[in-house]
Amino acid sequence: MVSDLVPMSSLSPNLILPEGLRPKLSQVINHGVPEELCTRMMNTITEFFNLPPEEKAQFFSTDPTKEVRIFNFYLKVKDQENVKMWSESFSQPWHPHDNFSDLLPKNPPQYREVFGEYAKEIGKLNNRLFSLISQGLGLEEDCIQKKLGDNPKLRAQGNYYPPCPEPELTLGLAVHTDPNALTVVLQSEGVTGLQVIKDGKWVSVDPVPNAFVVNLGDQIQVLSNGRYKSVHHRAVTNKEKLRVSLAMFYGPNKETWIGPIEELIDEEHPPVYRRYRQAEFLEEFMRQEGTRRMVKEAFEIRNQGKPVN
Ligand code: OGA
Ligand code: NI
Questions:
Q1: Within its chain, how far is the Cα of 95 from the centroid?
Q2: What is the pTM of this model?
Q3: What angle separates helix 111-136 from helix 35-49, to the nearest 10 degrees?
Q4: 175-196 pLDDT tens trace
Q5: Neighbour-count burial of 282, counting CB atoms closer than 10 A to its CB (0-12 exposed, 13-18 middle, 19+ buried)
Q6: Nearest ligand by distance to the CA of 218
Q7: Does residue 31 have its Cβ closer than 6 Å to ligand 1?
Q8: Quick count: other Cβ atoms within 10 Å of Cβ 174?
C-alpha cells in the first residue's frame, strides 16, 4: 500500500521530513472524529445515492453554479460526444450550515442532522491539520489558515461508483489534483478504488478501517512554494462492489490572493508561482474542463506567457 499510515499523534514529525520523504497522501487514524459518526455518515450518503432515480432527479443539474446538485464528470474527446465517467457526484456546501440546510435532501430523513454533526467534526480536524502543515513549514501555527483567508469555500462531494461490467474500459474519476487546499475523504470500507501515481505507476490506496484519506490540494502547493505537492489521483471502478466516498474540501474564497508565502522565499527558493486571486485560478480551472488539467502550471513564473494546456 502506497499511502503512509500516519497516526494523528505522529503526523507532525512526518510533515517536517525533508522533501521527497514526506507522504504525499496520508491516511490518518486517531483523528478524533467518532467512528460511529463516520459510519452513520457513510450509511446516510450511500442511502441517498441508492434512492430511486425519480427521487434523485430533482438534484440533477449541469449548472456548476448551483449550490446543491448531482452531476456526472466527463471527458471531452475530439469530434465525439463527451464521455461520462462511471460515477455520479453530489455536491453541496458544508458550512456555515444555516445558509443552505433547506436545500439539502429531505430523504433519507436523517440526512441533514447527520451531515451537520459530521461537518462540525471535520471543521475541527481541518484546524488541526492546517496547524500541523504550518508547523511542518516552520511557520506560525495559524499561518496557512490565515493565508487561506476568511470565509473559506467549504464544499462536500459525495462520489458514487456503482459496480461496472467492464472496469478496464472506463474510470470512476479521471486523473486530477484537488484544486482547493485540503481534502478529507471518507471511503467505503473494504472496496478499493482510489489510486495515486507513484514512480510513474498507478497504485491503489486500500481503505484502512477508521482512517481518513488526507489530500493536499493545489493551493497548499502554491502557498508552500512547492515544498508540499498536490498529488495526482483518480478512482477506478470494479465489477462487483459499489463504492462510495465523501470528500470534504477546504479552499480559499474567490477574493483571496494566493501566492508563495514570503517566509518560504529566499535566494535558494525563488518564487515558483506568481500571485493570483482564487477567482483567476478557478477561471483557468473551468477553461480546462474535460481535459487532463494543468491549472497551477499556468501560474508558474517560468511559464508566463506560454500556453500550458
Ligand atoms: C475527489 C476524489 C476520490 C475518491 O472527490 O476529489 O478524488 O476516493 N475522490 O472517490
Ligand atoms: Ni480528488
A1: 16
A2: 0.92
A3: 120
A4: 889 999 999 999 999 999 999 8
A5: middle
A6: 2
A7: no
A8: 18
